[in-house]
Amino acid sequence: MKDISFEEFATKDGQLASVDVATLKKLLAEYLDHPWTPITDAQRAETCFLLDETSILNIPMPKTPAEEVALVNNFLNGMRKLFTPENNWTNLAMLDTSMDYCAQCNSCAEACHLFEATNGHELYRPNFRSEIFRRIYNKYVKNEPFAKWRFGDVDLTWKTVVRLGEMAYRCNMCRRCAQVCPIGVDNGLISRELRKLFSQEMGFAPRELHDKGTMLQMEVGSSTGLSPSVVQETVEFIDEDYSESTGFEFHTPWDKEGAEILLLHNAGEIMAWPENIAAFSIIFEAAGLSWTLSSELAGYDSVNYGLFYDDVQAARILAMQAKAAKKLGVKRIISGECGHAHRSLLHARIAEIPRESFLPLLRDLVLGGKLKLDPSRNDFPVTLHDPCNVVRRLGIVKPQREILRAICPQFREMAPNGVDNYCCGGGSGFAIMTRNNIENWRMNITGRKKMDQIFGAFSECLGPETRKYVCAPCSNCKGQIREMLEKGGVQEQYNIHYGGLVELVVNAMTDLNPGFIKWEEE
Ligand code: SF4
Ligand code: SF4
After folding, report:
1. Are 298 and 268 in contact (CB under 8 A)?
2. What is the CA(186)–ligand 2 centre distance, in A?
3. Whose atoms come closest to the Cα of 98: which ligand?
4. Considering the domain boundaries, does residue 207 fall inside one?
5. What is the structure's pLDDT at 98?
6. Does the residue 1 lie in any domain?
7. In a designed cystine with 28, which of 84, 201, 292, 455 is the match (CB 3.0 to 4.6 A)?
């Protein structure tokens, strides 16, 4: 692999590099490639495709020298703000550490699934992006004397700016690299702060996260576009449908004042995986919990895409979710099966109300005998995907395993797992993006390691005669794994299916008709 020089990064015209799909790391079993859709000349004339075959930020090609200068100046102004406590109290301390110390040991590269999937492509080396950012910081923000000799040089051209913006979106922000760094440098945080700079200071953000994400959620109540009245009608329909098919009649409570728990679902589940919504309701009702959903704006959608790209948007969404909880007077918010929602809810200071993951509660219900369970109903091979936000970022590792060991006789771990897990490939917002080869990119590259882990976990039973289940207790991870299984030909060829954790619990409940989990071929 030819290295890309910092000079080329700053000055080379056109697309900087290309990844040949045929050279990607071979997997343990057959998985379909997703060749790049060629970028047309018309697309290149309009949009900056200056990095690889993908464009996530859709930055328009500057048409005049003045527009080129504006890109550089806006970037530099934003970058200076990133390094001031009044403008970046959220992440400045960690960002400073990541600027000041790096031994250039490249341990982070060995930990990164993008770097591994591409057999070491320079574009996807975590510290390649960070080092460019670091050099700009020393030369243009800190104005260090003799910076180019002491810290290495890079020119801040409009191409450097555009390419860095895209580089911030060639990272799942999974922080696996940060975990292995001997010094504590966080390459994922550098990507996050770059994304923030481009959004808050330059007005560039992926439309799936911004226009169709946080903006839509604030306006309508959910990034799915579901309004409060439609969401209630849809869940009522789910209640009826699953009451009939399971023989267990239940009604999801709405806007119950003084309830103990406000359950926050990722509203995408309501549209794409209604069985997950039904399973939560069945478990909570069967266990006799005091709980409710909320029909307030954003009070029924735990999604907070601000977490991936913009502090201000993140705070606005969280304030709306907290307001919904306070209005009902609930004692705590419980986050359902959504990894990034776990982190945005649990980490933010703004909410001022106890917030918890559903996992310890579910573990207590399963192990505490609150539900009548027959593990033999789950007697098929099951493996567990660890969502980065829940496991590595929040340290919630054991409850999900205790549950699976109790209800799935053929549970087996992926290797590695727990805090050493690999991202599904859809993390940091990619799971919901499809345009400009983004889908091909995450199918080919970011999801490649996860696919290999799944093959590895089922290595002794890969044949189509055995149904297998990947438990992915996170909405975004489930979306990414669904696409890899379906579009990679894996479901068909190897009989590997996916779903959440609560579905497995309900599938084992003896109060219900058998067969809650519907396999695709049924
Ligand atoms: S592991 Fe840490 S110190 Fe080593 S190159 Fe990566 S960021 Fe720098
Ligand atoms: S945060 Fe994850 S995806 Fe990003 S550079 Fe580090 S290991 Fe790679």
Report:
1. no
2. 9
3. 1
4. no
5. 92
6. no
7. 455
